[in-house]
């Protein structure tokens, strides 16, 4: 084939691909999906606690469905699976009502202990003054967080109630939505239904894998804190487990009280050992059990995840941190289905 013929063939391919991509903007289903997405973002801005409760409710329903699916698979008895689900929901509600307030009180005790601790280290006065100022600033920062949480308790109570209702009713909601989802599309309802299922399947796969990843990391962190002599190791371990569901941001927030306690209890050596512990756990998660458990199924670059969390967190606050990764997965699914036209 001559060079001219090859070039003409490339030009034809380019025209065909360009034509396909222009047709995308005429696809009413693609436009509708973008409208649904913008409506969701609008409500996330205007009523963040409601959206946050619904999102967390969906997250926890996926997490708590693990024992349901396990019991149903092993026994093939639906009533036993339902009983296991109810039991896990009861444990979760008990934890929210009693355990997490205890964590807040533990953090308050940590702050009080740090503020009362006098540093008597054999270092220059200017360095000692800097460390005392750092201790005061960090304590003030944690105190402001606790005051903020106390100030929004009514909203948090509403959020927890919505969260529990969502968790309990998620199965019926999912069944109803699954039967009606095709009504959201007009040009190709079957293809739209396939898009929705693919998107939620990715979110579900991520959450289930992250449960085990966070549990392993939290266990290693708790054991390490005990070994290096940091007080309240179990409380800090629980916080690290919860923080594991918020990549990078969760690590930063849980590391602050850890460093504060390590510094007030063991000085600079405690901070050094804590740094080694956190680096070891983080690197083990990144290179050993994390990719194996998740199966590298998301295939999203860590820098893209980090930027998205900070961007959406800055714009939408806590809810932005919750929905940053699902938004990335949504954009990727939308690109595959309605831009490239590739079915998964």
Features:
11 helices, disordered N terminus, 344 residues, globular, mainly alpha
Unreliably modeled segments: 1-22
Number of strands: 0
Q: Report the portion of residues in β strands.
A: under 5%
Mean pLDDT figure: 75
Describe the sheet with the most strands: none
Give the SSE layout:
Blueprint: H1 3-24, H2 28-46, H3 48-75, H4 78-116, H5 125-151, H6 153-180, H7 189-228, H8 233-243, H9 249-294, H10 302-316, H11 318-339
Helix pairs in contact: 2-3, 3-4, 3-6, 3-7, 3-11, 4-5, 4-9, 7-8, 7-9, 7-11, 8-9, 10-11
Write up this protein.
By secondary structure, the chain is an all-alpha fold. It has 11 helices and no strands. Helix 2 (28-46) packs across helix 3, helix 4 crosses helix 5 and helix 4 (78-116) runs antiparallel to helix 9. The protein is globular, with a radius of gyration of 25 Å.
Brief sketch in words of this structure:
With 344 residues, this protein is an all-alpha fold. Helices cover 86% and strands 0% of the residues.
């Amino acid at each position: 084939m001559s060079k001219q013929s090859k070039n003409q063939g490339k030009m034809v391919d380019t025209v065909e691909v360009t034509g396909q991509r222009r047709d995308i903007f005429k696809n009413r289903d693609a436009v509708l999906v973008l409208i649904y997405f913008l409506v969701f973002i609008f409500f996330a801005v205007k009523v963040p606690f409601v959206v946050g409760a619904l999102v967390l409710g969906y997250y926890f329903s996926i997490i708590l469905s693990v024992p349901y699916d396990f019991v149903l698979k092993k026994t093939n008895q639906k009533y036993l699976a339902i009983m296991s689900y109810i039991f896990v929901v009861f444990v979760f509600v008990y934890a929210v009502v009693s355990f997490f307030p205890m964590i807040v009180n533990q953090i308050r005790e940590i702050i009080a202990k740090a503020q009362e601790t006098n540093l008597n280290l054999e270092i220059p006065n200017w360095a000692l003054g800097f460390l005392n100022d750092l201790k005061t600033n960090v304590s003030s920062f944690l105190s402001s967080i606790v005051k903020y949480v106390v100030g929004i308790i009514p909203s948090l109570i509403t959020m927890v109630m919505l969260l529990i209702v969502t968790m309990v009713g998620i199965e019926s909601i999912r069944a109803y939505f699954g039967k009606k989802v095709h009504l959201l599309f007009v040009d190709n309802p079957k293809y739209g239904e396939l898009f929705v299922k693919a998107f939620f399947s990715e979110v579900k796969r991520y959450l289930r894998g992250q449960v085990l990843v966070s549990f392993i990391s939290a266990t290693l962190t708790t054991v390490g804190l005990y070994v290096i002599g940091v007080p309240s190791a179990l409380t800090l371990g629980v916080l690290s487990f919860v923080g594991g569901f918020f990549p990078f941001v969760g690590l930063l927030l849980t590391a602050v009280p850890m460093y504060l306690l390590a510094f007030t209890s063991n000085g600079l050596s405690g901070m050094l050992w804590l740094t080694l512990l956190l680096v070891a756990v983080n690197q083990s998660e990144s290179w050993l059990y994390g990719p194996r458990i998740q199966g590298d199924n998301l295939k999203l670059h860590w820098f893209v995840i980090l930027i998205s969390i900070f961007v959406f967190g800055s714009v939408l606050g806590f809810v932005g941190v919750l929905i940053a990764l699902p938004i990335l997965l949504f954009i990727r699914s939308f690109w595959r289905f309605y831009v490239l036209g590739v079915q998964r």
